[in-house]
Amino acid sequence: MLWLSTKQDLKLYTQQMRRQGKSIGLVPTMGYLHEGHERLIQKARAQNDFVVLSIFVNPTQFGPQEDFSKYPRDLQRDRQIAENNGVDIVFQPNVEEMYPHPLEVTVNPGRMESVLCGRSRPGHFRGVLTVVSKLFHLVQPDRAYFGQKDGQQLALIQKMVEDLDFPVHIVSVETVREADGLAKSSRNVYLTEEERRVAPEIYRALTWAKAHWQESLYLESPERLVDAVKKKLSTVPLFRIDYVELVTFPDLLPVSLFRPDETYMLAAAIYLGKARLIDNVLFGAHTLSHESSVY
Ligand code: AMP
Questions:
Q1: How far, in Å, is the centroid of ligand 1 from the Cα of 217?
Q2: Which end of the chain has fewer surrounding CB within 10 Å, N or C?
């Protein structure tokens, strides 16, 4: 396994692979790897000749009050996990390498950043799409792997690839969870014991909605479903709701009526102690194909 920290080296090696006719899978991450990341890597390993893992805590996607400087890091452990899962190249640049001068030109996420996390994290998705485009240009992968856990991010990256004609297939990977349902996340490390105990209530409330949305009460009024979930979450001690929102997937449009041919994403963001946790469920038509698909 190669560990590279410059764009020049990354371009050289990936160019070589492409010249040899090898397919390349890219897994972009911020490191502090867990089983969710591992699932992405394993899928990339199974579908490509060559796997590139990037580890970069991208400052441009963090707001001024957010956890950029405190974001958990453990490169030693990440190296071991990458090696164990058959990664060929780890690309771990520093901030100066990725952004040698202040950015002038960035990718505008448009309408789709005006919902869900986009609302509470202004500029976040512009930062994400811009750094992902840079990685796509440097690596020129055949496939790139993203988790369903960050549903809005996945939908936006897919939209960017379509709208800007990036020659890459986006592969989505189902959310990997702890035994009690909590979505694996690097940020779970922020939770105290007490917070960790209540954290699975997020997924519990979302799965309750997924099981009940077809009841006539909710079919008639999707808003009631969202309200019911908000009510459940608001009674959990220590939870502070950022949002609970129902949108179509992958277009992220508001829902006023449930339709039989539509896929829905119900998503929540909860402040819990020092962490802000997000999770979502998909339901409706085409759910299975969205949960684990090549777009
Ligand atoms: P991050 O390092 O948090 O930026 O995540 C890197 C990639 O891993 C993103 O595509 C995430 O959606 C994905 N990911 C993070 N957590 C999970 C999880 N629990 N299950 C599946 N994918 C995940």
A1: 34
A2: N
Tell whether ligand 1 has an atom less than 6 A from the beta carbon of residue 276: no
Has 286 been annotated as catalytic? no
CB 184 within 8 A of CB 36: yes
> The whole model's pTM is what?
0.97
Q: What is the pLDDT along the chain (295 residues), one digit of tens a residue?
A: 999 999 999 999 999 999 999 999 999 999 999 999 999 999 999 999 999 999 999 999 999 999 999 999 999 999 999 999 999 999 999 999 999 999 999 999 999 999 999 999 999 999 999 999 999 999 999 999 999 999 999 999 999 999 999 999 999 999 999 999 999 999 999 999 999 999 999 999 999 999 999 999 999 999 999 999 999 999 999 999 999 999 999 999 999 999 999 999 999 999 999 999 999 999 999 776 666 555 5
In the structure encoding, which two tokens stand for residue 222, read together?
Answer: 């999707």
Selecting among 37, 124, 137, 169, the annotated active-site residue is 37
29-56 b/e (C-beta count within 10 Å ≥ 16 → b): bbbbbbebbbbbbbbbbebbebbbbbbb
Rounded to whole angstroms, the Cα distance separating 295 from 35 reads: 23
Query: Other C-beta atoms within 10 Å of 237: how many?
Result: 9
CA of 149 from ligand 1 middle (Å) equals 6
